[in-house]
From TrEMBL, chain A:
InterPro entries reported for this sequence: Glutathione-S-Trfase_C-like, Glutathione_S-Trfase, Glutathione_S-Trfase_N, GST_C, GST_Omega/HSP26, Omega/Tau-like
Catalysed reactions listed for this entry: RX + glutathione = an S-substituted glutathione + a halide anion + H(+)
Organism: Paramecium primaurelia
Transmembrane regions listed in the UniProt entry: none
PANTHER family: GLUTATHIONE S-TRANSFERASE OMEGA, PTHR43968
Protein name: Glutathione S-transferase
GO cellular component, one term: cytoplasm
Domain GST N-terminal span(s) in chain numbering: 5-84
Domain GST C-terminal: residue ranges: 88-218
TrEMBL record, chain B:
Protein name, UniProt field: Glutathione S-transferase
Superkingdom of origin: Eukaryota
Organism: Paramecium primaurelia
Residue span, GST N-terminal domain: 1-66
GST C-terminal domain residues: 70-208
Length: 240, 222
């Protein structure tokens, strides 16, 4: 293969932004290599090439380095027609704003999951509920965010629902229980093949391990669920 | 500011509403999902948020486009939009932080950011060559800000080793849209903000800020 067009994705195994890009690349059947790195111990070669030091990063050929998940997603979409991104400038702008919105809600969720302070935990949960309401409003009665067809913006919400599913399977709590439309949407996009192949097989294990080892609020208030002890009936934290 | 500068450059007709970030009006909180500025309202119902999304939209509806059409170049430029935002955030912390240790840490971080921009510029007039492109607008607010504190910036040798960066700044600041893209009392508002939080920058340069406040309050609003 012409080395100039070789694509190498640099990612972190439980990074949701890396997952977004991986999901798109799987959906579009792009040929690429993947390198996983540890974000708390970044290798020197990575620090040298990544201006902001964040994952994911897409290396094209030997020298071209793209960063930021939304940017990489749009690039991949453009080089693999038919595009999932709309052509209309206004719709495109609305979708790009939603990419950022999905980043914000995902950051909230991860902050909630890995929070070690009670106050922050509760605050993040309230933010999340607000965000869920907004996405539900955007969805209305549509199958996908933009209507009947999948678009790029739907793939940017995949990591949100993958993480929520992980929580649901570990704790008997469904954060989406009051958001019927969102639940249906989430189930649908996580059942897409690229949703499954867009993450590492040990994603759930690594997330749960992180929740335990960082001694998060989630772990401290529900140790039985994380330690495979005999599970009591109710969820001891999410009782409203 | 980047959006305003672009809209002035492209001669877009628009209305502008200013709001206070520490006291956001209810109508704004209702329509802006992330409660951030800028937002662009189109007609009565459509609300665009995120400065980069707004900029690309404005560019697309007002040809000729100044965003490249090649997918890789576009992606590289968008990466620079994000980098400019990061630089701006670091500058904000540098200007408004209270703590001495944090101030010096930010200064080192800023120097690294500026070095990267300097490297990207090579010897070009603009980021992508002789012609202005969308990415250049993202750097305008950085230079507008640096200009407010020019003598201090020179004193702490923040940009001394980066002549390409400085020349680029002069080029951008001389554009008409650079001047039109900021409110006339911008400098005064920034300086008042710095004084209010009693930042390290303010405390270590009291005479400079006193004279800056005097100059800006004496000048009539253009």
């Amino acid at each position: 293969m012409d080395k100039r067009f070789k694509h190498t994705l640099v990612a972190h195994k439980i990074c949701p932004f890396s997952m977004k890009v991986l999901t798109v690349m799987r959906h579009k059947n792009v040929k690429f290599e993947i390198k996983f790195i540890e974000t708390h111990n970044k290798p020197e070669w990575f620090i040298r090439i990544s201006p902001l030091g964040n994952v994911p990063v897409l290396i094209i050929g030997e020298e071209v380095v793209l960063s930021e998940s939304a940017i990489i997603m749009e690039y991949i979409d453009e080089i693999t027609p038919p595009k999932l991104m709309p052509d209309d400038p206004l719709q495109k702008a609305l979708d790009r704003a939603k990419f950022e919105y999905s980043n914000e809600i995902i950051r909230n969720l991860y902050s909630f999951i890995f929070s070690t302070e009670q106050e922050k935990f509760v605050r993040q949960k309230e933010c999340l509920i607000k965000h869920f309401k907004w996405i539900e409003e955007q969805l209305k009665d549509k199958k996908f965010i933009n209507g009947n067809e999948l678009s790029l913006v739907d793939l940017s919400f995949v990591p949100l629902f993958v993480a929520l599913n992980m929580l649901k399977s570990t704790l008997p709590c469904d954060m989406l229980k009051d958001f019927k439309r969102l639940k249906i949407y989430g189930d649908m996009i996580t059942s897409l093949p690229c949703s499954k192949t867009g993450r590492v097989p040990d994603y759930e294990f690594l997330m749960i391990d992180g929740i335990k080892t960082q001694n998060t609020v989630l772990y401290r208030s529900n140790p039985c669920y994380f330690n495979n002890d005999s599970k009591p009936q109710g969820c001891c934290f999410f009782r409203n | 500011m980047r959006v305003l500068a672009l809209m002035c450059h492209k001669n877009i007709k628009f209305e502008i509403k200013f709001i206070e970030m520490h006291c956001k009006p209810e109508w704004f909180v209702k329509i802006s999902p992330l409660s951030r500025v800028p937002i662009l309202m189109i007609g009565d119902d459509i609300v665009l948020f995120e400065s980069d999304a707004i900029m690309e939209y404005i560019d697309e509806i007002s040809p000729p486009q100044i965003m490249p059409s090649d997918p890789i170049q576009k992606a590289l430029d968008r990466g620079k939009f994000e980098y400019a935002s990061e630089l701006m955030k670091n500058m904000s912390i540098f200007v408004f932080c209270y703590d001495e240790e944090k101030f010096f840490k930010q200064r080192e971080l800023l120097k690294k950011n500026i070095e990267q921009v300097d490297k990207w510029l090579e010897n070009k007039k603009y980021m992508n060559g002789d012609q202005i492109s969308l990415v250049d607008f993202c750097f305008i607010p950085i230079f507008v800000n640096l200009n407010v504190f020019k003598p201090i910036i020179q004193q702490c040798e923040l940009t001394k080793d980066f002549p390409k960066f400085n020349k680029y700044g002069d080029t951008l600041l001389s554009l008409p849209c650079s001047k039109a893209g900021k409110v006339p009392d911008y400098e005064l508002l920034v300086v008042e903000g710095v004084e209010k939080v009693n930042s390290y920058l303010y405390r270590s340069n009291p005479c400079f800020f006193k004279s800056l406040l005097e100059i800006n309050t004496r000048q009539p609003t253009k």
